[in-house]
Amino acid sequence: MIDKRFYKKYGFSRIYEKILSGERLSLEEGDQLYACPDPGVPGSLAHLRRRSLHGSDTTYVLNQQLNYTNICVNHCSFCSYHRTKKAEGAFEFSLEDVRARILSQAREPITEIHCVGGCHPELPLSFYEDMLQLFKELRPGAVLKCFTAVEIEHFAKREKISTAQVLSRLKAAGLDMMPGGGAEIFAPEIRERICPQKISGRRWLDICQEAHEMGIKTNCTMLFGHLEERRHRLEHLDLLRRLQDRTGGFLCFIPLPFQTSNNSLKGIAPLSGIEELKTIAVSRLMLDNIPNIKSYWVMLGLKQAQAALFYGANDLDGTVVEEKIGHMAGADSPQVLSRSELEGMIRGCGLNPVQRNGFFEAVGC
Ligand code: V47
Ligand code: SF4
Question: Which tens digits make up the pLDDT trace of 70-116?
Fold first, then answer.
């Protein structure tokens, strides 16, 4: 543990005491952490908190991502993945394509399927129900983490039913939990510029609340490093922890650094590695009621993902197998990591690898 005189030197004694006692940090204190000239201050405080929650355990999951279509009625300016139906590079999987992709990994003991796609203009809700049933048939033991709040709203609109009805039909078809995508940044003035056609931040939170109240856990994300300021990030984190106070339904927070290539948000330089790490640390400290922070190696890159494990993160996501959203936006990470590579990354940091499933429950080897 770092000597408390270190925190005193920078005027952080009160924040240090609050972290030790589990007291909630204010947005102003979040600002102060960001503004500290030494990133070791937020970093070590976040690591202290990470250690008190998880010790040196660092989780990973044997998972398979599946992006079933990139055809999308929205045109978010940060997104390099979406296409209109007739555009070059547009794709949509049939159920047979989905079957082939899942069977291609049949020898791997996968415990989570992470499935998301664009908001397709025509696919009916029955397609998604059939896809979930197919996952259950081919991967009976895996946690099915599928469809963001944005997709849920889209399905409801297309089907002319409520989001509660969509969630209950998907749950009946096998949906176990939902990934955290689509949250972006909740501030309306930023959302208006980066994803004007997407549901509002308020609606994203309401759909998550609805899911949580139906017993469907979800993750949550924040896309950062585009047009937003630090204050928008802090407000975003505050809205997440307020919903978590009410429902307890968020399992994990995933900070997603903006990947700058091949999209229509031009002229944005990638954030410095230190700003990324500070954001992960501040997230760990502000989100006092969300148990897990994911270091998503796909978007962070492998070395930064390791560093993040000392800035508050306790999870390294998984094997992934095939990822399109980050890679089409220029992510230079590999497509897949093996179990031994993930364990090697964690051990290489002096931390203890623990395999988990989608619910963050430890899985025996
Ligand atoms: O919703 C899109 C983001 C999200 C870019 O829940 C971009 O366990 C960076 O949500 N640069 C999808 N990010 C990924 C996601 C996720 C990933 C891993 C685990 C989990 C989980 C969730 O990616 C999208 C959007 O917010 N995104 N474009 C981009 N250019
Ligand atoms: Fe569509 Fe999602 Fe891309 Fe927005 S981020 S354009 S909703 S695929």
Answer: 999 999 999 999 999 999 999 999 999 999 999 999 999 999 999 99
Q: Cα–Cα distance between 222 and 255 in angstroms, integer?
A: 5
How far lies 276's CA from each of 26, 64, 312, 343, in Å?
20, 26, 12, 23
Q: Which CATH number fits domain 58-356: 3.20.20.70, 3.40.1160.10, 1.10.10.10, 2.60.40.10?
A: 3.20.20.70
Distance 143 CA to ligand 2 centre (A): 24
Nearest CA to 254 out of 229, 230, 283 is that of 283
Cα 24 versus chain centre, distance: 22
User: pLDDT for 142-193, tens place per residue?
Assistant: 999 999 999 999 999 999 999 999 999 999 999 999 999 999 999 999 999 9
- Is 198 touching ligand 2 by the criterion CB < 6 Å? yes
Judge contact between 250 and 218, C-beta under 8 A. Answer: yes
State whether the beta carbon of 329 lies less than 6 angstroms from ligand 1.
Answer: yes
Percent of the chain with pLDDT strictly greater than 90: 98
- The pick from 80, 81, 204 for probing ligand 2's pocket by mutation, whose C-beta has the most ligand atoms within 8 angstroms, reads 81
Give the CA distances from residue 27 to residues 42, 202, 247, in Å, rounded to whole numbers and listed in that order.
14, 19, 21
217 CA to middle of ligand 1, Å? 18
Instruction: Determine which residue's CA is closest to atom 30 belonging to ligand 1.
Output: 259
Cα 180 to Cα 283: distance, rounded to the nearest angstrom: 15
The residue type found at 323 is: E
- Say which residues have a Cβ less than 8 Å from residue 53's Cβ, sequence separation at least 6: 291, 314
The answer to whether the pTM exceeds 0.70 is yes
Q: Convert the pLDDT of each residue in 20-30 to its tens digit.
A: 999 999 999 99
